[in-house]
Amino acid sequence: MTETLYALGAQGDLVGVDTTSFYPEVAKKLPSVGYQRTLSAEGVLSLAPTLLVATEDAGPPAVLRQIEAAQVPIHILDSGHSFEGVLARTRRLADLAGRTAAGVALIERLQAEWQAARAKVATLAPKDPTKAPRVLFLMVQSPSQMRAAGIGTGPDALIAYVGARNAFAGVDGYKQLSPEAAVAAAPDVIVTTDHGLASVGGPANLLRAPGLAQTPAGRTQRVASVEILLALGFGPRLPLAVSTFAEAVHSRTTS
User: Fold this and answer.
1) What are the φ/ψ torsions at residue 136 (nearest 5 degrees)?
2) How far, in whole angstroms, is CA 138 from its chain's centroid?
3) Per residue in 29-60, pLDDT tens?
4) Is 115 exposed, middle or buried (0-12, 13-18, 19+ CB in 10 A)?
5) Which helix (H) or strand (E) holds 60?
6) Residue 61 CA to chain centroid, in angstroms?
7) Are 43 and 64 in contact (CB under 8 A)?
8) What is the pTM assigned to this prediction?
């Protein structure tokens, strides 16, 4: 949502953001109210907002009730992982910010970029769906803390958009990766975030995690990384995210 407000030219209305708002870079200079799931009423109200915009992930509920009791309107937007959801959030934020015309223009631009991204995917992805690569997306905090993205996650939606298969499709949400699960997933390519890959010291160290070396991706050393907000943000850079993800996933699997 922060990215969208900047794209709408409404950044001057922002009095604060949460800790996940680190793109564009300048957004990190704004006052922070902490992590969206663990907000404090005092922290939010100290910025004297006249409007709070959040997704359904924001909370806890008691804090949101306190903010509403202080006469600050709260608008909760759906955080679904789809291009249609991006357009809906853009339209809603444009209306809330009083920038309806800018919203129309941004949506038109996004639709054109989306068509270009989808065309790119069509040139990269295998024509036969059974040959689509199996992708394991990992959220990495340390060599011993790796969570795989299952269904219902942003990475799962991206994997589908680029014509690949989620190697962890049998699991809901994010789950800690065990050596046995890594081997059973049998990914052709492993994708993580730039930050996660740096935290373990690069691709070679990532593949030293138990089980990963024994996968097809481990044997061919197929590891890629993307910027975390590009992969998870589902904002105005979604067309770029799809193009970038497609290149990472299909770099050696085009047929």
Assistant:
1) -110, 115
2) 12
3) 999 999 999 999 999 999 999 999 999 999 99
4) exposed
5) none
6) 23
7) no
8) 0.92
